[in-house]
Amino acid sequence: MKTEELLDLVQRANSPYVGVCVDLGNFMIHLENPTESVKLLAPYIYSTHFKDYASEMMNWGFKTFGVPLGKGSIDPKAIVDILINESKLDRIMLELPVEKEATEAATLKKEDDCVAERVAYARNILLKDYN
Among 79, 86, 93, 85, which residue's Cα sits nearest to residue 126? Predict the structure, then answer.
């Protein structure tokens, strides 16, 4: 669903039991601006899959892929500000999309490195003003 469709659905439900889990990468599927979408949905956000994505032009179109926080197309700091100040969210769940490597061991090593880098970024950059 596009942001406006999701917003309309939640508003029509008009229930304290209906809210939004914001997956930041999903906005890119519809070529929407994640920061603007989070701003519109903020009053209804209860959960999140917090991540960053980049896109690359391929000979068949675009490829979108996960990257470390702060290194993609999404503005994580702006989104954290909205989530903390305008939503009902009480925790941010980091989602760590990692592309598969040639071997399982290499993929697991890449995942471990990504976890360490993204958690450090979240703690040291994104949340430093809120501790």
Answer: 79
Walk across the sheet containing 45-50 and list its strands: 20-23, 45-50, 93-94
Each residue's pLDDT tens digit, 85-125: 999 888 888 888 888 899 999 999 998 998 888 888 888 87
**61 phi, psi to nearest 5 deg:** 140, -145
Taking the C-alpha atoms of residue 119 and residue 101, their distance in angstroms, rounded to an integer, is 21
Supply the pTM of this predicted model: 0.85
One-letter amino acid of 46 = Y
Helix (H, G, I), strand (E, B) or coil at 125: helix
Give the rounded distance of the alpha carbon of 66 from its chain centre: 10
pLDDT of residue 95: 86
Tokens of 19: 């809210």
CA distances to 12, 19, 40 from 5, in Å: 11, 13, 11
